[in-house]
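Give me structure tokens for this 238-residue protein.
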Amino acid sequence: MPKIFLKFNERVLKEIPLDKPRFTIGRKPDNDLVIDNPVVSGHHALIVSEEGVFFIEDLGSTNGTFVNDAKIQKEKLKNSDCIIVGKHVLIYQDEIAAPPPLPKETESHTTMILETAKPKEPVKAAHGTMKPVVVGGKTTEKGGWLTVVSGETDRKEYELTGRLTVIGAEDTATVKLAGWFAPKNAALISRRGSAYFVSVPEGAKKITVNEEAVQGQKQLHDADTIIIAGVHFQFFLK
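Here you go.
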């Protein structure tokens, strides 16, 4: 029987058999898998069986559902697929799937490995392409950083290393806002490839980028100014 493994911070929390044709995932208690985290929507995603094949479908969630780092609307699941829901990871395991064949030591196989070792092209942003940085002869993409211009936070600068950065006063937030009236979940910054997007969580107040209100989500660019719950940030790529 196919199953999923729920992981958080590389730790397996539970193993769940897919023993029903529809399996819902979300923050509300009426889901089959309840993930009590503010970055997860009330009804976030659905795993459904269609003629013996399992699919993952996003249910219009605020922050999206990802399979192997690609944002999806509906995607057929394959053995060992990695599903991202908020900050949690679901590993799909199909027990009847055959193990992959061992590679043959042939010239064609060697060529294939060399081809796949080429660096991927960076994602093009709306105002141009993010330029890679050359370090020690190797090409690496620039990473995102937030600098606090004014306002109360626990640090003055943050490196955005994860797929999802939570900004707010809650204990699990990456960027922690201080002050009596700081909202628990004020904003989210997600990384897709080399591009960064800021979004407004459910129930959060207005945030602005370069003095323009964000509707849903907005892609960030180098030197953008962001105001979140009265705190002024500047976004950098370096």
